[in-house]
Fold each of these.
Amino acid sequence: MPAPAPPRPLVSLTGVTVASRRTRETLLTVPALEIAPATRTVVMGPSGAGKSMLLSALTGRLPAGVVLDGTRTAPAGLRIGFVPQRGAEALHPLLPVGRQLRAVTGATAARTRQVLAAVGLDASALAGRRPAELSGGQLQRVAISLAFLGSPALVIADEPTSALDNASRDETLSVLRGLSQAAGSALVVATHDPLVRAKLAADLIRVESGRVHLGDVETADDARATAA
Ligand SMILES: Nc1ncnc2c1ncn2[C@@H]1O[C@H](COP(=O)(O)OP(=O)(O)OP(=O)(O)O)[C@@H](O)[C@H]1O
């Protein structure tokens, strides 16, 4: 019997470059990259290397002032959830948290309660509280709930733990891993922290000086660090 065909990737980038519209400087080069369903990947690299730009290229939503050349393919209507560095960035500052989760996603109160419970939060305790009344770790878990309430096939997180203490970091990674596994969503996380990769048991993409490398290859940055 022939082996089953591998699942179709959620997003493929082929021969992609992203450049500044004004200066034409190339900011990111992606020879070939595929994100398969239900996989976990971390994107690592020095500050300014192009990690956030790669996340934007994967979503197909680029910041103003840059242009993408090459081929990005993704199924029509691909649902993508996004988790920012600070949960507050995903939330309206004045609306009670429970109400805004339902208003933004259209989810029922029961489903909202269920997803909040999955990240360790009690919906009734949050119902009347605004984002400023929650801790950084709680806000990050609310942002994760918001991302998963939309039933995404792909969740993108940009430095989701860099503003957290170690305990909140571990909790955040544990809920990201647990929810993505339970929902069958692929997870792509940009980070500076090698522990994030270990705790997520994720594949690795390196970005160095705007160029994407797949897997545990030694980059010029690694060679310099080893030589130092
Ligand atoms: N809207 C934009 N227009 C032009 N250049 C940009 C724009 N956004 C980012 N850049 C440039 O693209 C390059 C990559 O930036 P990016 O934010 O992807 O880096 P990063 O690896 O995520 O860095 P950090 O870890 O510090 O967040 C940088 O040189 C940055 O100045």
Amino acid sequence: MSNEELTSTIKMARQNGIVQPLLTDLYQITMAYAYWKSGKVNDVAVFDLFFRTNPFQGEFTIFAGLEECLKFLENFHYSDSDIGYLKQTLPDNIEPEFFAYLKDLTCKDIKLCAIEEGSVVFPRVPLLRVEGPLIIAQLLETTLLTLVNFASLMATNAARYRMVAGKTVSLLEFGLRRAQGPDGGLSASKYAYIGGFDGTSNVLAGKMFNIPVRGTHAHSFVTSFSTLDDIHTVTLRHSETQAPYNLLELSTQWRIKVSAIVDISPEEASDGELAALISYAIAFPTGFLALVDTYDVKRSGLLNFCAVALALNDCGYRAVGIRIDSGDLAYLSVLARESFEQIAEAFKLPWFSKLTIVASNDINEETILSLNEQGHKIDCFGIGTHLVTCQRQPALGCVYKLVEINGQPRIKLSQDVGKVTIPGHKEAYRLFGADGHALIDLLQRSSEPAPEVGQKVLCRHPFQESKRAYVIPSKVERLYKECWKDGHVCVKPKPLLEVRERVQSSLRTLRQDIKRNLNPTPYKVAVSDDLYCFIHDLWLQNAPIGELS
Ligand SMILES: Nc1ncnc2c1ncn2[C@@H]1O[C@H](COP(=O)(O)OP(=O)(O)OP(=O)(O)O)[C@@H](O)[C@H]1O
Ligand SMILES: O=P(O)(O)OC[C@H]1O[C@H](OP(=O)(O)OP(=O)(O)O)[C@H](O)[C@@H]1O
Ligand SMILES: O=C(O)c1cccnc1
Ligand SMILES: [Mg+2]
């Protein structure tokens, strides 16, 4: 397929309605006017979007949000009402021709190159390189940052939860009620899925992004029943014969039999809870997953659940499992698994030992690590607050810096060496070792030839002269792909599932010590010798010489 054919067939999904040109900081628009007024309309700029430190005291970040950036470029256009609002809001001296200029602005002259969404990325390596008319490229800053920062932070957070939970445990995102508002909640669900969660409780996210929606029920469903008389209907038809069964009678009989096996008195168990679970099972006989901690997991919830699950089995249905939302989750999950195993053995129902145990309640990375050490029996974590609010680190610090104007490099100096920008139009390469692991990311000037497999390359720390190494790569990956050019998206948008798979395959290229939770090893980011000299020459040219007196 030719490039034109490809671009004409690329259809982006609908854009989030609040992402629009006025979703920006006022200073972008005031600068646009000042650039315009000072004759910079034809100036051409290069901006890099990058972060300086990995989040969560980790040594890697997952890049996400690119597809939304492309939708933003595609739809960039000031409406009449936007222009009307700006006329009212900006000072009276703004010349009317500027508004006419804004009205016609689009991103057709912008070129955007980016690292593939879902890749592991590192400090200082630009995630996006934006080239084109200075004024337009400047106007994109805040919106691109807001689209990349939270998306990447969330995807990274989710990927970290996936790493500590392991591959076999399922992870559900339950955070909408605690998220930073409706849009924060939707983005959190989307990027948690990309980062490695299996599903969300957020129904709109399920509909919009095709993410599996999952859920159990709340304590209110249990507490709304207080006695067995609260059950409205007790009849359930057998899944195959369609014969009617009285689930209440069956469950009360089973509760007595189960209590003998797990050594808990049936009198201690709550009848209101039993009524709730029977009612829930009648409503969802094929998806019976019950919350068991409303009163007491050991003395009431487990017993009631097992009774109803066995009654359901009489009707030809297999229960799904339980959710525990308070107390010692390791201890209670072990207790629940033991009870399931005893019942499986006693009633010759092997599947009963495999019932799903979901745990929730303020879970974070540390809790999961601690539960792992304790030997829990949890199959699924439902995680809300800590995941979606990124409580451990609530922001990723991506910045957007001018690195070249009209072919001339620009550098931003700082007392803090880590904040000095790397000037010029650059390419980025990932160099891999013989064992398939990523060794180093290398930034070069775009005019330099790409590193080659088997050829020795000198990789230098961008600011510390003595830190350098020769690398002979076994594989070289060019990190930037052209994603937007001549007014068109030029990469095919990937289904979320593919981006989610990309996260895992990209993480597999990282050595374990870079990914570990405690004191991980930093991944190396280097510059070529040529770029090193270029940075330092420009630094000297721009740093004023002080005078001591
Ligand atoms: N075995 C465990 N090891 C480490 N942390 C745990 C373990 N079990 C539970 N936790 C965590 O400990 C915290 C317990 O929360 P909290 O003190 O509010 O108790 P609770 O069980 O929710 O009490 P309540 O019954 O009042 O709801 C939660 O963050 C939970 O994820
Ligand atoms: O704890 P999180 O990680 O945020 O996960 C979501 C929480 O939301 C639900 O109840 P909610 O917290 O609203 O009420 P509860 O604490 O009384 O169960 C659920 O039972 C979890 O506890
Ligand atoms: O479905 C659940 O169990 C759920 C959903 C949201 C928040 N807490 C729990
Ligand atoms: Mg809670």
